[in-house]
Specification:
Elements (H helix, E strand, L loop, with lengths): L2 E9 L5 H13 L7 E3 L13 H5 L6 H13 L2 E10 L8 E9 L5 E5 L7 H4 L8 E4 L2 E7 L6 H9 L4 E6 L6 H15 L2 E8 L1 E2 L7 E2 L5 E3 L5 E4 L5 E7 L1 H11 L5
Parallel strand pairs: 1-2, 1-9, 2-3, 7-8, 8-9
Antiparallel strand pairs: 1-14, 3-4, 4-5, 6-7, 9-12, 10-11, 12-13
Helix pairs in contact: 1-3
């Protein structure tokens, strides 16, 4: 039976976790009841700037914000995938560290955290990179989690193929100037692993004093296991709801002979 998922495309309030969390809560409550998984963009709770201000808004994975996401998932019956800047005490040599983290929260309270492994530009100045790939059990099957620039690394895609994931869930804050690359890479990662790919992108602009202004691509989409576009958005703030059909996945895998015994 097809499973409805949503890519919730947001324009964020950088460095304002309360405003962003309220926006996430509002969007989830406005989704159709049947949506099983809802994805939000990279840094959806905190936004991002490449200086010390991001440390001031960083969140703990055990903090009240993630607790609110857990309550939201339970109340709505929808699993959530949401990004934020994480503060943790497990950096190199025991120092405190900041990570670009995405949390997957299931309605039953189960949580999984993915720390972005491939940092982009200014991220390297203030964040530590994660070290582990993450696969979660979801209503659409096994899903690997990627964050934005991770899409560029074919080795990661191949590793998820060895894990036999049924989908990749991707959160992004892709610059509008390179929006075609975002679309291309989402489709490529679907094709090279013969799986569904759901990408939730940030839209709008970052306009923070003393930080470079950035326009974001939006263009959230769902790519089919053959690399075609199943459903997509432009740059407007909106919810992309699409059904992932396991029969479509099985037929494409049978066609190309992947995972054949």
């Amino acid at each position: 039976m097809p499973t409805p998922v949503a890519a919730c495309q947001l324009a964020l309030s950088d460095l304002d976790a309360e405003a962003n969390l309220a926006a996430v809560e509002s969007r989830v409550r406005g989704l159709p009841d049947e949506v099983a998984v809802a994805l939000f963009p990279e840094y959806a709770l905190t936004g991002f700037v490449a200086d010390q201000r991001v440390a001031e808004v960083a969140l703990s994975r055990d903090g009240p914000e993630v607790e609110r996401l857990e309550s939201l998932a339970r109340e709505s019956g929808t699993a959530l995938l949401v990004g934020f800047v994480e503060r943790a005490a497990d950096g190199e040599r025991g120092r405190e560290a900041l990570y670009n983290t995405t949390v997957y929260v299931a309605p039953d309270g189960a949580r999984a955290f993915y720390r972005k492994r491939h940092l982009w530009e200014g991220e390297r100045e203030v964040l530590d990179a994660g070290t582990e790939r993450v696969v979660v059990d979801t209503p659409v099957g096994k899903a690997g989690i990627l964050t934005c620039y991770d899409l560029n690394f074919v080795g990661d895609s191949a590793a998820f193929t060895r894990d036999r994931v049924d989908a990749l869930f991707v959160v992004g804050a892709w610059p509008a100037a390179y929006s075609e690359n975002w679309t291309l890479l989402l489709r490529a990662r679907a094709l090279d692993g013969v799986r569904w790919v759901v990408g939730a992108g940030r839209t709008g602009r970052r306009e923070v004093p003393d930080a470079r202004a950035v326009a974001y691509a939006g263009r959230s989409l769902v790519a089919r296991p053959d690399g075609g576009i199943h459903a997509s958005l432009d740059r407007r703030e909106d919810d992309l709801v699409a059904e992932l059909d396991p029969e479509t996945l099985a037929a494409q895998r049978d066609l190309v002979g992947i995972y054949g015994e």
